[in-house]
Amino acid sequence: MRKKTLAIAILTGFAANIASAQTSVTLYGLIDTGFEYMSNSASLGATSGGHSVVKMSNGVWQGSRFGLTGKEDLGGGTQAIFTLESSFNSGTGAAVPTNGMFGRRSFVGLTNAAYGTLTVGRQYTSYYTLLVPYSPINWLTGYGGAHPGDIDSMDSSYRANNSILYVSPSFHGLTVSGYYALGGVAGSFNRGSTWSAGAQYISGPFGIAAAFLRINNSTLGGGAWGADSTASSGGAEPGVSALTYGYRNAQAQQRVAVTGGWQFSPAFDISLAYSNVQYIPGVNSGFRDEAIFNTGGVVLHWKPRIEWDLAAGYAYTRATEANGITSAAHYSQFNLMQYYSLSKRTGLYMVEGYQRASGKTYTLNANGVGGIIDATANVGDGANSTPSSSQSQFVGIAGIIHRF
Predict the structure, then answer these.
(1) Are the CB atoms for 192 and 234 separated by under 8 Å?
(2) What is the pLDDT of residues 19-44, one digit of tens each?
């Protein structure tokens, strides 16, 4: 009997060791396609010539993607983890960004419930990771409902290459995180780097988060950055918009933001956000004074039935007076959203956004020469490359999303 008991114990322990070393890999993704109407669409930097447009839109509710994620138990509560995630345009099948096979996320690391998670690769910042639970993009979408031009990068478009991210476990509701992306510029450890830190506290129905983000250009301003607002050797992505076009050759950007929310009932919640964004000039920049944008926003979410989600939001952005501007630009944006669940994986949605701009802003022409112009509207971040050429813009979108 003792021998039989011993044999069972040995076999049980052997099976447990096998289980602890198991590896799981999951294929996942989603496809999101719809149709969009934009009342005034012009090329970035244009001050006239805008026209209404009807087009197929991609990734409005969530960016179309597919990915692989996996983990391996290493023992002692530690797991090795990885994610490879690729964005694509569901209307054309093209990779986004171009030639970026896993341009959305690509990281590997270790996680332990007692010590937290450490990952390296291409990934989101601490700023985004901790603020996003109360960001406007959750119900209004980033495409139409991000704060004007996504000035504060609360949408999911900013990731950096060569990054190291640490997220702590939750200590009585408190989570902290730190992030650093190496710039790789010879002779300077700081240039081209991105760093971020933040904290989040959740207690029952209430939550609040605060975070900081610094993006350093690989030059001292005046670099050729294509579509990047401030590009770095670390792969910065914040897009140029009508709000920031005059500051696209900044030496650095800084963002400080606070978000929070309250779940009043299973059917109703509210979220609030505030951000301060700074564009810092360098010796070769096309502007001389630091440009500062302050933004506040609120989102109301209501779930009248299990299959319905409805939301409304308002955001206000105001620039400070700088670079010869005495009537600073300000932007008011209103948003509505309707989502109907056909199943747990499939849904239909509509998103509407209207923005009105006032005051003056700063711009740079193709030769880097600055000037003061009337501020123009730029709803969410879906119109960043085709903002309005006037002070107002309306965007309406209807689509379908399927997750797998």
Answers:
(1) yes
(2) 445 789 999 999 999 999 999 887 77
